[in-house]
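User: Some background: our group keeps a shared notebook of sequences we're curious about, and every so often someone picks one and asks for a predicted structure to add to the entry. Today it's my turn. The entry only has the sequence so far, pasted here. Could you supply the structure so I can complete it?
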Amino acid sequence: MTGTMQITVNPPLQTAKSSQRPSRELAVSRRALLSSRTNHAAKSFSCLLDEPYMASGGSIHAVRQSSLAFVRPNDSNALDGDSRPRLTALRSPHGGGQTGSPNSRPRSELSAPASASTRLSPNTLLMRAWRSLIELRINDAFVAVAQFEDAIARADALVAARSREFAEVIRALLFVLKSRDHATVRAALAVLESRHRSGGNSPALTAALRIGYWKVRDFDRYYAVPRLSHAVPAHRGTHGLATIIGPTFEAIVEAEQLRLAVATRLARSAHERAVSRFGKRSPVTARAAGVLAELLYEEGHCAGLDALVMESLAAIRTSGDRESALRGYRLLARLAARRGDTEFSFLVLKEAEVLSAARDWPEMMAESLMLRAQLLLQEGRTRDAALCVERIETLARDLPSDDVLQATLALARAQLLVATGEARRAATIFRELQAVSSGKRNNYWALQLSVRLANALLACGDQAEGRAMLVQALQVGARAGVYQTFVDAGAHVAELLLFLHHATPQDSRLPPELRPYIESILAERAQHRVRTLPARASRVTESLSPRENSVLRSMSCGLSNKRIAQELQIAPETVKSHVKGIFIKLAVQTRAHAVSTAGALGLL
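Assistant: Of course. Here's the predicted structure to add to the notebook entry:
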């Protein structure tokens, strides 16, 4: 493979194999949903806390007592829920359906008696389901639909056919919003398309169709669905889905196409509407806040993002919205690590793991473990990071056809290989990820893969290809406004950025318009390192000798020991001795890490 980066093809990983697995989003009968069951989630929680690597992320007591903790020691109901309610299978226009096995019930169901539906009319339950859907209270909406069906099954009077049809449409909308399984989303889209062909043209329906087509990566149909913003005043009941939920998903699509400015405007507008209509602590507000916060983080605007996510956290935990939970916890962990508070970052990730276990969200569990491993590697705790990767491998073995989970495992393995000196194997993994994801339209993911691959290539000595790939990624990132992806890049990318920044235009052969962009990236990396190593800077500055400073500057230019010896007119063995002294004083193990740390401490 050459240094060319394919920015037009890489999506979230999905393959044809995903349609072969039984969908974990599909439902069972109303009786199974409304029946009682024993609480086995608490057992999973206790097993999670017994893991050996728990010590790497803070004590059990800290997790239980933190202000973030959603699970309390005596709160059994909090552990008794699964955010993926099981309902009657979606039916295709030909009458086919899919079924699944019961797992657990949502918390909202446990807090309401099973006989609640007998005290409410079917139409009241239907309206309750619709209101819950508009507010993204997914669990409550599923339960209300199930109670509606239970009520009409036992009702003496006939229920209007339109009410039954409306219930089926609500269920399809819920699956479109919630499911990540392509077969499930396509079945739901069949219901919505049938409704659309029969004359349904509400803004909510068109927004749901666009969301569904995006999830199955059918962009031809996605862009073919017309926007009906002019019809919103005539459809007050669909206003929330059309003007808040829909634009929030559109912001995600625009971000995938590296149109970050447009994506941020859409997300900000959706968030403002959500706050105005539903308040700051509503699930629909939380979804918009999470998307907006991640976009602002990527653009380098980090001030106030903690508060933006934290005020939505309670709604995230109880809504059953896996995507919002993943975005919220992931961003909180990154922000904490960015300001040097790794203890809080570990705590956030541990609570994300606990929530994932309680809700049965293996993809979120895997990503939390991958982020934990990344933090551990930054601290030099390779063995603890390997334990996290082993946990992800266990999850992946249980769900071999889950493409998202398999991709997370591949990324976790690759970052461990780079840290343990096997960067060539890591580069092979990144190439395989690019091959699997080709043919899809997710340019943002393509850019992230290219930066990771460039770091691995530089680490294993493929300087020419690694440099070419990084420069092309910088050109794409500068045009799109991507920032944090390069700030968070590996140490070998940072070393090359330092060389490009300090080298003369003739030596770097770098487009001049990229210099200010690289300088801003390096400045942010330096601030991050200073925040994490505030007390060490003065000690290191005083302890490095003038000769060690000279060797360090030559190392930052990518020179070998032999070249440094020739330049400084000293023996190669003397250079080796100075390099060893630099490693000891900077508390690093590699040349790339030494250059990165020295740059952060202002020594270069």
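Suggested note for the entry: The CA atoms of residues 393 and 562 lie 42 Å apart. DSSP finds 33 helices and no strands in the chain.
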